[in-house]
C-alpha cells in the first residue's frame, strides 16, 4: 500500500509534528509513505472567504500535483481540507468548458482520504499499536463530521489506544468557533463560541483534547492557553504515534 | 372585490415568475409520485388507547363511554358484567357533560353538532339539570360572536380524530362548530370511536377527498390538539391564552 | 432592549455583553434542541420525510408559475379575492385601501414573517388603521416597540419580570407576577380587540394549489380568532409558500411542529377555503395577497433558488453556534440565524446585509437540522462569493492577500519561502512558546482573545527535504 501525504498549510507551517506523527503511524502499519513537495494549499481559505477565482487557481494546482502521483491513496490530517477537495472543488469546476477538469478532479478525489478514515476504512485497522496513559476526550471537527460523515472512526482508534481513558464531553459535536477567517472577522463571536466549548472540556475532567483538524485544535489550544488551563490539545495522529 | 380598489397588473408577478424560471409560457408539470408512508394497522381499542395517551399528554381530558363497558377513563378499562342499555348509556354521557359544565352553571352552553345531540336529547337533558343551552344559528355574525364569547362551554361533534397525535378534527360543515370550539373557555368534543384514525395521513387524504372538487368547497377545517397554549414567556407553558383553557374529549364507543 | 450599532460587529458586541440576553438565549436554544431531538424520534424515518419535503418544494418552486395559477383559480372559485403584490408597498397599499373602503378602524394580526418583512404595521399606523399583534410574543414586542428575536418565540430575549414591568406600565391593570397572570391579562385585553376588529390579517404556512386552501399552524388560538371572528380575513403569503396537493401537506405537518417547537402537533392547524360564507350579502370576505417582494429575484438564480424552500421553523437558529451567542436582533433585520444570513442579503441587498453570510463558522449544524435539507452552508458560501464578485464586500488588503496566496500556491518554492518569512516574523513575537499579541490585523483580532502557538524551527516540507523518511 502506497500513500501520498496531503499536508495542509497549518500542519506544514505550524504543526509539522502532526505530519511526522502521521508518517510514524502509517509506517508502523506497513504503509509506504511519500510526500510530494510541489503541493501547496488546497484553497479553502480563499474559497470560504468568497474569492473563487483565486481558489480555483489553487484547486487546479492541487489537481495537477496529485493526478500524476502513483500512490494508492492521498491522505490528509484534516477533515476540512479533505472536504474542500472532495465536496467543493466541483463547484469551482462547474463551467461548461470544465469537462476535462472535472474528469481530472475525479481521479484525484476518488483516492483522497482523511487520516482516520484511511486507517479504519481502507486498512481495516483500529488498534494501531499506540499506548498513552492519559485521560482524553474527542472534539468532532465540524467538516469532518458533517461534510465527510466521520465520527465513529476516530473514536474507535482512540478507544484502541492502550492505557487511554477516553471520556465523551457534553455535546462533542458542537462547533469550536474557529471557522477560518470568521475567527478574525468576528473574533468576539468566535471567542464566545469557543468559551462554551472550553467549559465543556473543563467539566469533562480530561488532560487532553483530541481532534483531527489542526485548525480547531489551534482555536481550542489558543483559548486554553489564554485561560491558563492545564488541559492540552493533541492531534489524533500524534496520539496514535505514541508508544 | 369592488372596482374602487387599486389593482396592480394581475399578471406582473406571474410574468416575473416565468421569466425567473426561464420560460415564456407555463408548462404543465408531471405530478410527483405519491409518497407512501407505512400504514399502521390498529383495531378500535388500540386507537382509543393511543388517542387517549397522546391527548392526555397535551393536557386534554379524555373520557371513554362505552355501551359494552362500564365507565372507562384515561384508558383504564373496567369490563362490564353485562351490556348496558342505550338509555342508560346516553344518561351517562349527559351526566359527564353536566359534570364538566358544573362550574359554568350561570352561563350558557353552546351546542354545535345538532344531529348527534338531537339523538341524545342533549338540550332537554341539560335543561333538566338546570343548564341553559344555545344552538347558534342566524345570520347576524356580530351578535353570534358576542353571545358565544359569553358562553361558559362549547360542545361540538368532531369529524375525525387522529390517534398518533391525540388530535380532533372539526369542520365548518357543522354550522359554527369552529366558533363554538373557540370562543368559550371550555370545549367539549364528542367523538365516535369509529371516527378515530391512526395517522395524520389518513385524515389528510379524507379531508382532501372531501374538499377537492365538491360543489361548495368553501369550508374550513381545524385540527385541534389539546387546549390553547403558549410558551412565549421564558418558555414556560401557559394554557389557555386565546382559545379554550380546557379541552374535554368524550369518546362514544 | 435594543441592540445599537450600524453593523453586526457592534450589535453582536452589545448582545454578548448583555447577561440577561445570554441567559435567555442559552435556555431557549438548549430547550428547543432537546425538544426537537425528542420529537423526531416519534417519526419512523425522519430522513425520508425530510428528503420528500425537499423534493416537493423543489418540484413546486421549479413549476411555481403553474401552481400559482392553479391556486389563484381555486381561491377565486371559493369566492376569495386574490391580489398580486410585487413589493411590500403594494401589499400595504392594498390592505389600507381595503380597510378604508370597509371602514375598518382596527385590525387584529397574527404572527407573520411576511408582514414583518414589509413593515405592514408602520404603514397601517401611518394610514390611521390600528394594527394589534395578537400572538403573545408579538404583542409583547409591539408594546415594547422592539423587533422579534426568534422566528418562533419573538420575545425570547425578555424576562418575565421585564414583561411584567411592561404590562404594568402599558396596560395599567396592575403587575402580573406569574406567567399565568401575564397570559390572562393578555387574553382579556386581546379578546376585546378580536371582538371589535374589522379585519384579521395573517400570513400563511402553506398554500395548497389544487384546493386553494391556506394552511395556518399555531398554538395560541389567535390565528383562529383572527380568521373566524372579523368578517374580513386577509392572508399575506409569499409566493414560495405553495405546495401542489392536499396529500403533500401531511409530510410538512409532521416536519414543521417537530422542528419548530418540538411538538408532535401544534394545538391548532387551520385549513381555510375562502370566506366563511360565500353569498355576498353575508359580508364575509377573504383576500389572498400573493407577495413577491424580491422572491422572483431569488428564483431567477438557480443556485440560490433553494433558499425558497424554507418553511420558517426556526430549527436552524437554535442549533447555530453564532445565533446561540448573539440572538436574533443582532442580525439587524427580521430574519435571524443561518436562514436569515441567507435570505436577508437576497431580499434586501448585498450592500445592506452582505456582512451576514460571513458571520458563520460554516459548521453545518443548520443544514443537519433543516427539515427540508436546505444546503445552508453552501448558500452562505455562494453569497460570500457574490459579495466579493460584486465588490460589495471587497477589501483591498484582503483581496491583495488572497491574490498573493493564490500566486504563491502555484509556485511551491515561493510558497515555502513565504511560510519561512512568516514564521521568522512570528518567532520574534513569541514568548515561552506562545504569541500573546500580534500588532497587525487580522491576526491582532485573533490574539485579542486567544494565544497563537510559536512556530517551530522548520516546516514539514523543510523537515522532509532535510531527512527524507
Care to describe what's here?
The complex is a heterotrimer of chains A (243), B (253) and C (469). Chain A is an alpha/beta fold and 243 residues long. Chain A has helices at residues 9-13, 16-28, 44-49, 52-67, 79-92, 99-109, 115-122, 142-147, 152-159, 182-185, 187-204, 214-227, 236-241, and strands at residues 2-5, 32-35, 73-76, 112-114, 135-138, 165-166, 208-211, 232-235. Chain A contains 13 helices and 8 strands. Chain A is globular. Chain A starts with a strand and ends with a helix. In chain A, 60% of the residues are buried. Chain B is built from 8 helices and 13 strands. In chain B, strand 11 (229-230) and strand 12 form a beta hairpin. Chain B starts with 11 loop residues before the first helix and ends with a strand. Chain C has helices spanning 8-17, 19-40, 46-62, 64-77, 88-101, 113-117, 120-126, 136-144, 160-171, 179-196, 222-228, 249-260, 295-300, 315-319, 321-326, 337-347, 350-353, 365-369, 376-390, 396-409, 412-429, 443-447, 460-466; strands at residues 81-85, 106-109, 130-133, 199-202, 206-208, 213-218, 232-238, 242-243, 268-272, 285-291, 434-435, 452-453. Chain C has a 6-stranded parallel beta sheet, with helices on both faces. In chain C, strands 8-5-6-9 form a 4-stranded mixed beta sheet. In chain C, strands 11-12 form a two-stranded antiparallel ribbon. The longest helix of chain C is centred in the N-terminal third of the chain and has 22 residues, at 19-40. The interface between B and C is large, with 81 and 107 residues. Strand 10 of chain B pairs antiparallel with strand 9 (268-272) of chain C, so a sheet runs across the interface.
Q: Could you outline the blueprint of secondary structure elements for this entry?
A:
The complex is a heterotrimer of chains A (243), B (253) and C (469).
Chain A: E1 2-5, H1 9-13, H2 16-28, E2 32-35, H3 44-49, H4 52-67, E3 73-76, H5 79-92, H6 99-109, E4 112-114, H7 115-122, E5 135-138, H8 142-147, H9 152-159, E6 165-166, H10 182-185, H11 187-204, E7 208-211, H12 214-227, E8 232-235, H13 236-241
Parallel strand pairs in A: 1-2, 1-3, 3-4, 5-6, 5-7, 7-8
Helix pairs in contact in A: 4-6, 7-9, 11-12
Chain B: H1 12-20, H2 44-57, E1 61-65, E2 71-73, H3 86-101, E3 109-111, H4 114-120, H5 122-128, E4 133-134, H6 141-149, E5 153-157, E6 160-162, E7 167-171, H7 177-180, E8 186-192, E9 196-197, H8 200-211, E10 221-224, E11 229-230, E12 238-239, E13 246-252
Parallel strand pairs in B: 1-13, 3-4, 3-5, 5-8, 6-9, 8-13
Antiparallel strand pairs in B: 1-2, 6-7, 7-10, 11-12
Chain C: H1 8-17, H2 19-40, H3 46-62, H4 64-77, E1 81-85, H5 88-101, E2 106-109, H6 113-117, H7 120-126, E3 130-133, H8 136-144, H9 160-171, H10 179-196, E4 199-202, E5 206-208, E6 213-218, H11 222-228, E7 232-238, E8 242-243, H12 249-260, E9 268-272, E10 285-291, H13 295-300, H14 315-319, H15 321-326, H16 337-347, H17 350-353, H18 365-369, H19 376-390, H20 396-409, H21 412-429, E11 434-435, H22 443-447, E12 452-453, H23 460-466
Parallel strand pairs in C: 1-10, 2-3, 2-4, 4-7, 5-8, 7-10
Antiparallel strand pairs in C: 5-6, 6-9, 11-12
